[in-house]
């Protein structure tokens, strides 16, 4: 056997290429997707960029930015991260307008420069060192995650879309550091519903509507767990029906661990503080930008679909699908069986295969303990290893004769 371009080739190839292709197609026999599920979700990661601070922090400091685009068959969202990495800040990552924004579909609604805070024991996790950001899945679902080093906890955010979805589902997790006690967890959402009123010297009429009540600016809306399952942020002046503004935005709140909170309905930003039981360790919510829709259409959407969307949110397993499907014992047995079946032809792949089995074992143990970083690595390993798996399968088939 010789190696050509890293691919083992039989010198005494008794089987011609067409036959191998035939075998491959038998091995790869994947059921054709149903006609109605042609839409997929794409995720684009810009990678890390840096620039010199202008307004974000002390001039001269270095600002790190990164963005993720996630697009279903229905809507495209983008998320932008920004944080100052100057060593003088230690593990903090200041950014004057916020660290995690949603510039698309609209810069208003969920604020482009920073709409999300995860306040644990009074400190925002999103404003601390990034442990990692990566795409988890594309295709039948699309998702990415970001992990932050809060002084008292490792905090993760996963954002996911379904191909038919007009919204982004999110899963937030906090794991206390050893010796740390978490006393409070509040998810803070900053919105400018439909239009940047004050900035443009205009006066609007902000509202927050839940299934239970509807309240107008300027006021404080106290949230009731178990009842306020969705919040719609809208403005009666800046309504698409009147030819003004972008349209409303909203959130659906998973009720597990949700204990209440409040919404500050100001004349300009509308800021929500969603409180969660620290012991729950996680929270789920879904973000909607209804840009292009009238207030009435958005209200109608929540009335018609709010309940079903909440059910799907709660039922969603945010782990990447290859990880969900993995049973390590079965994986190990399958790989060993393929190695044995591939016999001499598999020899060249043996060290890599054994290393893969060892890595999958390590990462699957860590991910079972809730380590999202390990789970992301595990998902990548499983996806990347598919090529090796098919090679072994072909060798095993060739040796069967
Ligand atoms: Zn700085």
Tell me the layout of helices and strands:
Elements: E1 2-4, E2 7-9, H1 17-27, E3 42-45, E4 49-52, E5 62-71, E6 76-84, E7 100-104, E8 109-110, E9 116-120, E10 123-124, E11 130-137, E12 142-150, E13 153-161, E14 167-176, E15 185-192, E16 206-209, E17 214-216, E18 219-223, E19 230-235, E20 249-253, E21 258-265, E22 270-276, E23 282-289, H2 295-315, H3 321-325, H4 328-346, H5 350-368, H6 372-384, H7 386-398
Antiparallel strand pairs: 1-2, 3-5, 4-5, 5-6, 6-7, 8-15, 9-10, 9-15, 11-12, 12-13, 13-14, 14-23, 15-22, 16-17, 16-19, 18-21, 19-20, 20-23, 21-22
Helix pairs in contact: 1-7, 4-5, 4-7, 5-6
This protein binds zinc ion (ZN).
Which keywords apply here?
401 residues, alpha+beta, 2 domains, 9-stranded antiparallel beta sheet, 7 helices, 34% strand
Describe what this molecule looks like in 3D.
The chain has about 400 residues and is α+β, with helices and mostly antiparallel strands. It has two domains: about 40-315, Distorted Sandwich (Beta-galactosidase, Chain A, domain 5); about 320-400, no CATH class. Helix content is about 25%, strand content about 35%. The chain is built from seven helices and 23 strands. The chain has helices at about 15-25, 295-315, 320-325, 330-345, 350-370, 370-385, 385-400; strands at about 1-5, 5-10, 40-45, 50, 60-70, 75-85, 100-105, 110, 115-120, 125, 130-135, 140-150, 155-160, 165-175, 185-190, 205-210, 215, 220-225, 230-235, 250-255, 260-265, 270-275, 280-290. Strands 11-12-13-14-23-20-19-16-17 form a nine-stranded antiparallel sheet, covered by helices on one side. A hairpin with a 4-residue loop joins strand 21 and strand 22. The radius of gyration is 25 Å and the shape is globular. Mean pLDDT is about 90; it is low at about 1-20 and about 30-35. The protein binds zinc ion. Zinc ion binds next to loops.
């Amino acid at each position: 056997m010789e190696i050509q371009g890293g691919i083992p080739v039989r010198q005494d190839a008794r089987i011609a290429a067409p036959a191998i292709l035939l075998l491959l197609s038998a091995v790869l026999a994947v059921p054709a997707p149903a006609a109605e599920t042609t839409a997929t979700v794409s995720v684009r990661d810009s990678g890390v960029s840096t620039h010199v601070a202008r307004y974000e922090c002390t001039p001269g400091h270095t600002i790190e930015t990164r963005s993720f685009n996630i697009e279903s068959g229905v809507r495209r969202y983008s998320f932008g991260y920004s944080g100052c990495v100057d060593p003088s800040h230690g593990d903090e990552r200041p950014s004057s307008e916020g660290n995690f924004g949603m510039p698309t579909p609209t810069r208003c609604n969920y604020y482009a420069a920073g709409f999300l805070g995860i306040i644990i024991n009074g400190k925002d996790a999103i404003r601390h060192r990034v442990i990692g950001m990566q795409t988890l899945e594309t295709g039948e679902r699309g998702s990415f995650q970001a992990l932050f080093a809060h002084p008292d906890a490792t905090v993760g955010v996963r954002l996911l879309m379904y191909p038919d979805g007009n919204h982004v589902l999110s899963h937030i997790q906090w794991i206390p550091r050893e010796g740390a006690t978490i006393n409070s967890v509040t998810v803070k959402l900053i919105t400018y519903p439909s239009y940047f009123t004050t900035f443009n010297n205009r006066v609007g009429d902000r509202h927050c509507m839940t299934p239970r009540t509807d309240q107008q600016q300027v006021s404080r809306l106290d949230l009731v767990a178990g009842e306020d399952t969705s919040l719609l942020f809208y403005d009666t002046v800046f309504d698409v029906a009147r030819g003004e503004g972008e349209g409303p935005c909203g959130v659906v709140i998973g009720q597990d661990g949700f204990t209440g909170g409040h919404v500050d309905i100001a004349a300009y930003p509308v800021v929500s503080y969603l409180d969660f039981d620290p012991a729950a360790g996680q929270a789920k919510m879904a973000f909607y930008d209804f840009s292009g829709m009238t207030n009435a259409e958005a209200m109608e959407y929540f009335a018609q679909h709010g309940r079903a969307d909440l059910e799907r949110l709660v039922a969603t397993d945010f782990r990447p699908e290859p990880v969900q499907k993995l049973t390590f014992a079965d994986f190990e047995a399958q790989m060993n069986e393929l190695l044995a079946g591939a016999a001499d032809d598999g020899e060249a792949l043996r060290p890599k295969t054994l290393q893969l089995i060892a890595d999958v074992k390590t990462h699957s143990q860590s991910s079972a303990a809730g380590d999202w970083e390990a789970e992301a690595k595990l998902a990548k390993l499983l996806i990347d290893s598919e090529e090796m798996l098919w090679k072994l399968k072909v060798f095993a088939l060739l040796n069967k004769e």
